Amino acid sequence: MIVYEVICLCCKKAFQLHEGTAKYKQFKKNRKGKFCCDDCSHKIKMEAIKHFFR
Predict the structure, then answer these.
(1) Partners of 5 in the beta sheet?
(2) What pLDDT, in 10s, does the model give residues 1-54?
(3) Which residues are CB-neighbours of 15 under 8 A, at least 6 positions away?
(4) The pTM is what?
(5) Which of 28, 38, 43, 54 would suit a FRET pair with 4, their CA atoms being 20 to 30 Å apart?
(6) CA–CA gap between residue 23 and residue 44 (Å, rounded)
(7) Which of 2, 1, 4, 3 lies closest to 33, judged by CA?
C-alpha cells in the first residue's frame, strides 16, 4: 500500500494520504496542490453550511 505524507494547508500538521482515496487521486494528478486534513475539511464544510443558511 502506498502512502504519501502531506502538510495540511490550514493547521500545518502532516497527515497521510492512503492509496485508493479521493484525496490520494487528486494528489497524484496535482502534486503542488493545496490539501487539508479530514478535520479541517469538516470544519470548512460546516462553516460554509452555517453561512449558507444565514
Answers:
(1) 16
(2) 899 999 999 999 999 999 999 999 999 999 999 999 999 999 999 999 999 998
(3) 5, 6, 8, 37, 38
(4) 0.77
(5) 43
(6) 16
(7) 4
Q: Helix (H, G, I), strand (E, B), or coil: what is residue 23?
A: helix
Q: 37: buried, middle or exposed (CB in 10 Å: 19+, 13-18, 0-12)?
A: buried
| Amino acid at position 7, single letter | I
> Which residue, chain included where needed, has cell 470548512?
44
**Residue that is written with C-alpha cell 497521510 in the block:** 16
Question: Using CA atoms, how far apart are residues 24 and 2, in angstroms rounded to an integer?
Answer: 10
16, β-bridge pairs:
5
Provide the grid cell at 3.
502512502
